[in-house]
Automatic annotation (TrEMBL):
This is HTH araC/xylS-type domain-containing protein. Residues 180-278 form the HTH araC/xylS-type domain. InterPro entries: AraC-bd (IPR003313), Homeodomain-like_sf (IPR009057), HTH-like (IPR037923), HTH_AraC (IPR018060), HTH_AraC-typ_CS (IPR018062). PANTHER family: ARAC-FAMILY TRANSCRIPTIONAL REGULATOR, HTH-TYPE TRANSCRIPTIONAL REGULATOR EXSA. Signal peptide: none annotated. Keywords: DNA-binding, Transcription, Transcription regulation. Pfam families: AraC_binding, HTH_18.
Amino acid sequence: MMPFLLAEFTNLEQILPLYVYCVGSHEQKHLERPDGYPAHQLFLSRSGQGIFRIPGRADILLTPGTALLLPANLPHAYFPYESTENWDLGFVAFDGHAAKPLLEQMHELMLSALQVPNFELLWSQLESLWHLISLNGEQSYWEASKRIYGMTISLLEGQTSDKKSLKGVTASSSPQPALQAAVKLIHDHYNEKLLLTNVARAAGYSPQHFHRLFVTSYGMTPQQYILQLRMRRATQLLQENPDITVESVAEKLGMETSYFIRMFKRTYGLTPKKYKDQS
């Protein structure tokens, strides 16, 4: 779980085209918002089921692997499908000068339960955003602005990858199945010395073509994706094993210790040891 974080910062909301208002995830209980919420919201339903109720509209059921985009200031309520059910719901609220035109471009995705084929990527981006804001404070908000934009583009990409057209523009055949196989290979071997040329060939692509398709679909390079997987696993190891050493974590990730420490600090703003001490 990622406890609710309110992103409090000074005057940057007047400068950033997009800024994060709050982010988190938890077992969602019944929540009423008769006046709506002051920022736009993206919800990710990871497990369990829940209902969103908006006056004048049919109820929206969110099941595992679905998402919902809600505009700011729209009255609503949401709650688990059954009172005894655990509903793991992630959320990020955002606003800024660029938010309205961005959502206008995505208006077809608003106010409906979206099946998300790249759900784990979006959830990973949500976790990364939470860690960034929780550990870095005010200095993180420029990077957070980039990442919330990346999340919305990832959502849009996932929704259009299996469609023949978007607003009358014909799309090429989707490379998603082959890319998914490549991503599974990365997940299975991220802690090894993984040659991306071999991953590309396993997916049936040249290394250059694979790199282009990966960036288009996932919003980051394969190397960045692998690093993100390693950093997420590092935080899990540090949280779940209080006595584990930094050297042991690096070894489990297939990384040299000094490089691991440098990448961890670049990602989260503090060393693995300080992170462990704060956990």
